[in-house]
Structure formats: C-alpha cells, structure tokens
Amino acid sequence: MFELKGTEVNQSPPISDPVSPIESGTEPKLLLRALRGEVCARPPIWLMRQAGRYLPEYRATRKKAPSFLDFCYTPELAVQVTLQPIRRFGFDAAILFSDIMVVPHALGQKVWFEEGRGPRLDPVGSSGELGRLSMDSLNENLAPVYETVRGIRSELGPETALIGFAGAPWTVASYMVEGGGTREFAKVKTWAYGDPEGFQKLIDLLVDATTLYLESQIAAGVEVLQLFDSWAGALTAKGMRQWCLDPNAEIIRRIKVNYPGIPIILFPRGAGLMYRDIAAESGADAVAVDSTVPPAWVRDELQSRVAVQGNLDPILLVAGGEALRQSATEILETLGGGPFVFNLGSGIVPEADPEHVGELVELVQGWSA
Ligand code: CP3
C-alpha cells in the first residue's frame, strides 16, 4: 500500500528556489517534492478532512471523548484518527487532527460544538471587547496539539509527510465575531467596514497567534503547513486584499524567516479571479483551489508561479462511478504536467463512500504522465 511507484522527476528547474535540507533526488516524500516545484511521475494525493465521520473507525474513536474539543485535545485519540485514513488508503500525507477553532479557544474565547450545528462561540463584537483575549497562555493551552504532532511523527513511515494547519485570520475572525457559522457575514463585515482600524486589531492578534501556533507545530514535527481561508469567497476584491491576502502574506513572511524550508499551502476558498493575485503575491509555495475553478485556468494562470492543489468536487465521492473517474482524470491530465498535489476543492463530507475514496486513491496513485 505504501510502495511508491515512479518518483523520478523531469529535469525542468524548480519554479522557485526552495531551501531544503534534503537533496530532492533522495527525498522520499512526494508531497515535499511537489511543493518544491518538482513535477512528479504521478502527483501526491491527500484529501482535506480525510479523517472524519465518513469513516466508521473515526465514528468509533470519536465516542471515546465527551466533546469534540476534548477529542482534539486528547493526543492519544487525535493521533489514532490522524493515522486511520493513512492505514486504510495509503495517502501520501497525513494532516494533524485538530480544528481551526482551537486558536480562539486558546486565546480565551468560549468555544463549543453543537451536534449537527458545528462550532459555537461567545461572540466578540467590537474592538472594546478584545481585552477578553490574550496570547499569554496560547502555547500552554495548545500543548496537547503539539504532543499529538510528536505522536503522529513517531508512527509515520518515511514516505508519508505530516501537514500542520491553522485557520486564516479572516475565516477565524468570522467565527469569533458571528459566534458560529454564517451565510451573510453581516456582523463581521459591519465591524470591518464600519471600524476598519478596530477590526485590524483583531486581524493583527490573529496574525500573531497563528504564526506562533504554526511555528510551534513545526518545532513539534510538522513538515508542511496549510492555511485554511475557507470564507475568503465572502469578501469583495478590496476586502480580499485587506483581510485575506495581506494577513496571510504576513504570516507566511514571518514563518519563512525562521523556517525557510517548510512549504506553505494557502487555501483561499472561493477567491475567484483573485486567485491570480494571491498566487503571485502571498509568498505561499502552493495555492489550493476550489472546485469552481477550471483546471485549464489553474494550469495557465497559477501553475507557472506556484504549485497547485485541488480541486475535485467532494460530492463526487458520494456519487462515485463514471463521473468520479472522468473528473479525476481530467484534473490529472490538465494539472499533472506541472507541480501538483491531488486533493478536493473543499473537505470530504460525512456522506462520502469510503469505497469511492479507495478507488480515487488507486486511480491517482496508478496514473502516470
Ligand atoms: O482534514 C483533516 O482530516 C484534519 C482535521 C480538520 C477538522 N477541521 C476536523 C473536524 C481540519 C483541517 C478542520 C478545518 C476546519 N474546521 C475548517 C476549515 C476547512 C473547511 O472545511 O472549510 C473549518 C471552517 C472548521 C470549523 C468546523 N469544525 C466546522 C464548520 C465544523 C462542523 C462541520 C461538520 O462537519 O460538522 C467542525 C467540526 C469538525 N472539525 C469535524 C471534524 C472531523 C466534525 C465534528 C465531529 O466529528 O463531531
């Protein structure tokens, strides 16, 4: 299951000049090679939310913790569920099992998860309320996550990369201000438009907290980072620059000073025409694209600047069949000739069929340019 087929790279130079402690010729982790700009004989594959309720073994382990946050903060359980999809499918990367809501929680905000409703938070409504939040105990509160990272690293084989992650400032801020998920983003946008200086203080706090959190994940053993800006698509073009591109670029700039060899994937979901500016200006090694973006556009407009990741529609893992095979093959054939990581355009849904996931992994790992 873990055997790598055809990892030779072609001789074209990497697109950027990545600093790496390991010579690319001997690097066994396909994900690291692709993120350094190499064109692999077949692309690496992992899937956003690959550990989750679509897996019966996840549902069984999930019952052992009283709440979802306890689950995230119990290293023994978090290590186990991180490894489940690796053992079942042989993905090329594991992603730390945690949630983007641990940062507001570690800053002192009340966070809880309601069954079927997702995250709930005691909302922060204005810059006057930012005093309730503090970075002082951030790393102490997040220590169980770092312990999880160490536990996963000790169990992973030499060809499986470990990805750490955090929510991006805008996406995390939207939950912090709305008190949960939202369709309209009315409260957070009203604050951002009405009091941009005050709102910037929240974004700046999240830039600091996210940088510390991600650097601590690297110190514990993650080899790649992904920033999830799941709600970038709710912003105007100007807003996307101010609250998505600029803060993410600042986090990436700071991390690159201390850890230049750690590749960073930025996922500004729904960025539309702004994907081009984000690929050119964020400093990310790779940009993850959602399922609405045509693969040929991704190839022509993004892939000459950065590695790209995506973008199969996650519902194809519910439907399966010819539609799944056709769409996956089109993505492979369009993007497989450049630096590319196969993934979905957003997270796996609980209704996904594990059989379909297995078929997809086989198709991608059996493909060659
Ligand atoms: O990808 C992985 O396997 C790693 C784990 C991971 C989770 N959440 C576990 C989780 C990751 C990377 C996340 C990221 C995350 N969390 C995002 C960004 C990516 C995206 O999907 O847009 C967001 C917006 C959140 C916030 C969040 N957490 C929501 C909206 C929900 C509820 C949605 C749902 O499916 O119920 C969660 C809960 C959550 N996080 C679950 C999992 C496996 C399901 C809860 C459970 O098992 O009871």
Overview of this protein structure:
By secondary structure, this protein is an alpha/beta fold. It has a single domain, classed as Alpha-Beta Barrel (TIM Barrel), CATH 3.20.20.210. 45% of the residues lie in helices and 12% in strands. The chain is built from 16 helices and 9 strands. It has helices spanning 30-35, 56-62, 68-72, 75-89, 102-106, 138-141, 143-155, 169-178, 186-194, 196-220, 237-258, 275-281, 295-301, 316-319, 321-335, 354-365, and strands spanning 93-95, 111-114, 118-121, 161-167, 224-229, 264-268, 286-288, 307-312, 340-344. The strands form 2 sheets. Strands 1-4-5-6-7-8-9 form a 7-stranded parallel β-sheet. Strand 7 (286-288), helix 13 (295-301) and strand 8 (307-312) form a beta-alpha-beta unit. Helix 9 (186-194) packs across helix 10 (196-220), helix 10 (196-220) packs parallel to helix 11 (237-258) and helix 15 packs parallel to helix 16. The radius of gyration is 19 Å and the shape is globular. Bound molecules: coproporphyrinogen III (CP3). Coproporphyrinogen III (CP3) is lined by residues 48-53, 62, 68, 95, 97, 99-101, 118-119, 165, 181, 228, 230, 346-347.
